[in-house]
Amino acid sequence: MNIGSGMLLDRTIQPKVRDIEHLAVQMPQRCTMPNGVSLNVLDSGDNEVVRIDLLMEGGRWQQSQPLQALFTNRMLREGTLRYSTGEIAEKLDYYGAWLELSSASEYAYVTLYSLNKYLPQTLEILESIVKEPVFPEKELGVIIENNIQQFMVNSSKVDFLAHRALMKAVYGEVHPCGRLVQKEDYGRINPAVLREFYDRHYHSRNCTIYVSGKVGDDCVRRIEDMFGKEVFGKDFRKPERREFIPVSSMDKRIFVEHADAMQSAVRMGMLSLERHHPDYLKTRVMVTLFGGYFGSRLMSNIREEKGYTYGISAGIVSCPGPEMLVINTETANEFVEPLIREVYHEIDCLQNDLVPEEELAMVKNYMLGEMCRSYESAFSLADAWMFVQVSGFGDTHFEDALNAVRDITPEDIRELAGKHLCKEKLKEVISGKKMS
Predict the structure, then answer these.
(1) Of 225, 287, 408, 411, which is the most exposed, with the fewest CB atoms less than 10 Å away?
(2) CA-CA distance, 314 to 62, in Å (whole number)?
(3) What count of other Cβ atoms lies within 10 Å of the Cβ of residue 292?
């Protein structure tokens, strides 16, 4: 076939695969505004849209009772001194804006997506939400009731029950990850409880802002006017850095009965490394090969070859302190035992045999591709840099992660599996119908 200039394109020849030697991840422009709030600007993209993220240091780790951090964050949009919950929803909809609220282990997040042309109007709403929420009792009651209903629905699902039982078994009841929310905890939430948490953690000395998208000078100036000049909030102490020591259960296997279950949920898990352990980044490669993508060892054996499940995965669950390695699947009740045996078989193989170079190359290409996709848009860049801040990594994290993937060898995989995939420490949690 003739192609334009007369060159022939031979489709039988595979294009060259080029190794990624360097990750050019855009750095945020950083400054500290007059009131002490840190501002991080990621100006990238052609669309007239910006995203503004406010991070407040204060999550489950800092709360005095279950659900306090979650509902404090959730209720910010339910009414302020200037706007009712209906007005907030109506105005955001009218201006084509979107608001996301989320709470994690040590941080709360308030995220606004806005068209640049309506930024003056949407920033006013954001300012009111952050600085002057009123936590109305009526709206709180409705939201709590809805959450209780959702909790009861989830409590009838085997995957939810297995996940809760695993967290408790691995971390213990005192640790925030193992302290399970109960139905009664919802009844202990009231406006005063939320106001206490808000006053302690939502203030200018505890706030970091990221703005990403097509960020012009006018956008930065408006953010500085709203959130950077005057101090806001009441209690200007930084939150205490709290450490919790996991206390794992002595039980190897935990069974949570669900008599009506058609399938059983299987969760296997153990404490893993802290983020700053020298093996951490390379261990993530080993875990990806083991069960972290569609072509992994667990998927190839247990799904493709044995047909025990539609899907099985392994991954590291992030949290402060020791993180958790989790193996996650659902299967027919009669396949539970053979499935677990195959998981241990795959661990044995990783610990005793060298991974073929071709298989390792496939995992590397997958992970490097995921890295590139994660840093290609302004909003994903903001997510990446916020993750670096929350995790306590330095500015070299992306290059460090790239080097860990690029440089790992089959010998490294075998050594890491021997050190960090301990079959004796893996808890086995099954939720489903009891087999006779």
Answers:
(1) 411
(2) 29
(3) 23
Cβ contacts of residue 221 below 8 Å, gap of 6+?
A: none
Confidence (pLDDT) at 8 = 59
- Tally Cβ neighbours within 10 Å of residue 243: 8
- Which string of DSSP letters, residue by residue, matches 234-248? S--PPPP--------
Is 29-227's fold the same as 253-432's? yes
- Residues pairing with 317 in the sheet: 324
Among 325, 290, 297, which Cα is nearest to 426's? 325
Tokens read off for 126: 């954001």
Alpha-carbon span 241 to 296, nearest angstrom = 37
Query: What is the arithmetic mean of pLDDT over 305-329?
Result: 96
At residue 297's C-alpha, the angle toward residues 294 and 300, to 5°, is 65
CATH architecture of 29-227: 2-Layer Sandwich (3.30)
In eight-state DSSP terms, residue 299 is I
* Residue range 253-432 in CATH 3.20.19.10: no
What is the residue whose two structure tokens read 């009772």?
65
Which residue carries 């993750």 as its tokens? 387
Q: In whole angstroms, what is the distance from residue 139 CA to residue 12 CA?
A: 63
Distances (CA, A) of 171 to 67, 90, 322: 18, 43, 9
With 0-12 CB in 10 A as exposed, 13-18 as middle and 19+ as buried, what is 11? Answer: exposed
Task: With beta carbons less than 8 A apart as the criterion, state whether 324 and 270 touch.
Answer: yes
From residue 49, give the alpha-carbon distance in Å to each of 17, 61, 119, 373.
35, 34, 9, 20
Distance CA 208, CA 36 (A): 9
Query: Alpha carbon 430 to chain centroid distance?
Result: 24
CA contacts within 13 A on the Cβ side of 202: 23
Alpha-helical regions (H) of 315-409: 336-352, 357-374, 378-391, 397-407
What does the block give as tokens for 336? 């539970």
The conformation of residue 308, written as its DSSP 8-state character, comes to -
Q: Compute the average pLDDT of residues 149-158.
A: 96
How many other CB atoms sit within 10 Å of the CB of residue 276?
9
Residues 379, 49: contact at Cβ < 8 Å?
no
- Average pLDDT over all residues of the chain: 94
Whether the per-residue pLDDT at 38 is higher than 80: the answer is yes
Both tokens assigned to 227: 């959130």
For 431, the token pair is 């939720």
The domains of the chain are located at 29-227, 253-432
113 by Cβ neighbours in 10 Å (0-12 / 13-18 / 19+) ranks as middle
Q: Give the bridge partners for 431, in sequence order.
A: 256, 265
